[in-house]
Amino acid sequence: MRRRSSASAIASKRAPAPPAPLHATGNGAGDPAWAWEERRWRGAVNKVRAGRSLKPARWKNGARMCVALSFDSDHETSTLREGSTSPGRLAQGEYGARAGVPRILELLRRHDLRASFFVPGVVAELHPDEQRRVVAEGHEVAMHGWIHEGTSELTEGVERDLMRRAFDTLAKIAGRPPVGVRVPSWDFSATTLPLIRELGLLYDSSLMADDEPYELLDDGEPTGIVELPVEWIKDDAPYFGMNRATAIRPYTAPAAVLEIFRAEFEGALADGGLFVLTMHPHIIGHRSRIAILEELIRYMKGMPGVWFATHEEVARYCKANA
Ligand SMILES: [Zn+2]
User: How far is the CA of 281 from the centre of ligand 1 (A)?
Assistant: First the structure.
């Protein structure tokens, strides 16, 4: 009892809101998990769950597999989200807009490929011409939070407000309402799915319950929302990330990252499945790294029966054909 009252005292000091959001975060506030009743752990697990597989028997035009390339245009928000205004750090993000995106668009144009760009609302406001160019060149612009906020830290009301703001901003700047979302840092909260339903989105690409597309269940109820699953393995950030001030520098050589990505692609090809690759313009856009993306693209294009599509195209196809 003493433990509970001190926990709620801390919660009320932190924020005036009722303690409900702490439950939503799933950050373990309250009783230790070993003391939970079945209803509680089962309820937590069933909140957002993978439903029926949406892997089609055959991909578009008889293709054997599907490749969905995505770029999360975090740019300056990878610094702003922490409340930092350091010009030095902001410049690293600015690189994504100034050098990364143009280089990526040029590469995609040369290989005649379409991709999806997940863009925070603040990035769209900072770089509206970039979003218009991305759309004009046939790519998809989709949601990626407002300022790359940590979703689990938000109350439901704040999360709803930021999602609506992001939705309206992308609709205005990109010229059409977004149909998909990738939650920043894949930090999907217990209130994210109902908000996705409220916005009427077609798909999410933030969860990791399968290699293949599936339908999201909301407390056991089928939602019709397509999940295009992701994984840190198929993401450039963990391999190339570096923090100058800490010992965190798991630097991986570009050639080794290419090897991992290629093995993931080959596995998807063998399964006749989906290969979703997540990259960041301020990370993959550097010279030594864009080179491995081009090599990977050449390799994948060299295989027969590979369908390259945007996330929106994949989600629509899976929903109609699975
Ligand atoms: Zn991001």
Answer: 10
Residue with tokens 């009252």: 5
Q: Compute, in angstroms, the gap from residue 53 CA to the centroid of ligand 1.
A: 26
Ligand 1 centroid–CA 138 distance in Å is 21
DSSP 156-218: HHHHHHHHHHHHHHHHHHHSS---EE--GGG---TTHHHHHHHHT-SEE----S-SS-EEEEE
CA 240 to ligand 1 center in whole angstroms: 14
Distance 32 CA to ligand 1 centre (A): 31
pLDDT for the residue 26: 52
107 and 69 in contact (C-beta within 8 Å)? Answer: no
Residue 29 phi, psi dihedral angles, 5° rounding: -65, 145
In whole angstroms, give the CA distance from residue 231 to residue 15. 33
Q: What is the pLDDT, as a whole number, of residue 151?
A: 96
Q: What is the pLDDT of residues 212-251, one digit of tens each?
A: 999 999 999 999 999 999 999 999 999 998 887 887 776 7
* Residue 140 alpha carbon to ligand 1 centre in Å: 16
Please write the tens of the pLDDT for every residue from 285-306: 999 999 999 999 999 999 999 9
Q: How far is the CA of 231 from the centre of ligand 1 (A)?
A: 13
Mean pLDDT, rounded, of the chain: 92
Ligand 1 center–CA 185 separation, angstroms: 5
| Spacing, Cα 148 to ligand 1 middle (Å) | 6
183 Cα–ligand 1 center, Å = 8
pTM: 0.90
Cα gap 147→163, rounded to integer Å: 10
Q: Which of 242, 241, 236 has the alpha carbon at shortest distance from 291? A: 236
Q: In angstroms, rounded to a whole number, what is the distance separating the alpha carbons of residues 186 and 121?
A: 16
Q: How far is the CA of 78 from the centre of ligand 1 (A)?
A: 7
CA distance 189 to 5: 25
Q: Tell me the angle at which helices 287-301 and 254-271 cross, rounded to the nearest 10 degrees.
A: 20
